[in-house]
Design a protein that fits this description.
Strand order of the largest sheet: 1-4-5-6-7-2-3
Helix content: 25-40%
Number of helices: 3
Structural class: alpha+beta
Largest sheet: 7 strands, mixed
Number of strands: 7
Distance between the termini: 18 Å
Strand content: 35-45%
Length: 159
């Protein structure tokens, strides 16, 4: 039995840990963002990214770019995966690390679990388990936006 533990080859975000106000702001941003994703509100979700934002979320799938590309990818992903399989998906973000960078960006790293519930099946399926790395920036109106998101599924560590 192989009992080796796999680890990612990149370190946690560098720079200073976030002050408590920024940490809470990032948590609230993610709460709002993930509610949009779980409701498959593709356009509002895409607008939580910068206009040139990058969303890399699935192995073997090219990253989506820009508001239109991100919204299209969210819609098409849900259509491909769940068209004839009614589900409710919930993304759970935890173990959030927030680091302000000298250039004003905010680098985050967190774990994500996705719970999928189907009609008549009270027990959700938990899959996948991921590490998510984001670069956040402030928009002209002072709100946080995601400039880039890279999702690495734990299963990729074993491929």
């Amino acid at each position: 039995m192989n009992t080796a533990v796999r680890t990612t080859d990149t370190a946690a975000p560098a720079a200073n840990p976030a002050r408590s106000g920024l940490y809470a702001e990032v948590q609230l941003f993610y709460a709002r963002q993930v509610h949009l994703l779980d409701a498959v509100r593709a356009e509002p979700f895409a607008r939580t990214f910068t206009e040139d934002g990058v969303f890399a979320h699935s192995p073997g799938v090219p990253p989506a770019r820009g508001h239109a590309g991100i919204a299209q990818e969210v819609r098409e992903y849900n259509e491909r995966r769940f068209k004839s399989d009614p589900v409710q998906r919930r993304h759970w973000f935890t173990m959030l690390d927030v680091r302000e960078q000298p250039d004003g960006t905010v680098h985050t790293e967190f774990y994500a679990l996705v719970a999928t519930t189907r009609p008549g099946q009270p027990q959700p399926v938990i899959s996948p388990s991921c590490v998510v790395r984001d670069v956040l920036v402030r928009s002209d109106d002072g709100e946080l936006r995601t400039r880039s998101r890279k999702v690495t599924q734990d299963q990729e560590l074993f491929d």
